[in-house]
Sequence to fold (189 residues):
Amino acid sequence: MSSIIPLLLAPFLLCLWGCNSCPFPDTSEAAFSVEGSVTGSESPECATAVALWLGDVGEGDYTYKYGEGAADGDAFAVTFDDPPPDEAILAGWAGIAFVAVLPEGESLADGIVEEEEFGEAGFTMRHAVIWKPGDPSITGTWLDGFPAGWSCGGCVGSQGFDEFEPVDCGEVEIQTGDAIEETEFCEWT
Fold:
């Protein structure tokens, strides 16, 4: 009987070192991915993480969801298969996306979303995913410091509006709960 007990416990013990109840996306197959940390008192056990792009095509601002992944405890990952769609580019200038953690069990389809369509359990208050077109429509701004294509930005203070500067995507941090209250949002617009 005693030789059966280790066999019965083996799957459980192996799971302690390698089972992940929250499936993270395969970042090796993505055109671009962001893997960062989640801080605060309400970090999710397993939730959907999404990229929310600020868009404007001359008819007013809107939010565009493109990019998805997962958040689990103190980490998140979001992947992108292609460059962002035109609707996710702010006036042809650049794509700026904040990463949000949705409440557990909630999801969003790609496309324009109304704020009433989703809740946020967490948000990147000081970081953004940046997409810079090869030939941006506006130059002479903080975006000039970014390479063409995908990158990540960290908020820096400026006279007037805040700006972003290039940072390693591993530095991107989603705040939840009390960390939202304690973190100043990047006022770049």
Summary: Helices lie at 4-18, 178-182. The first helix runs from residue 4 to 18.
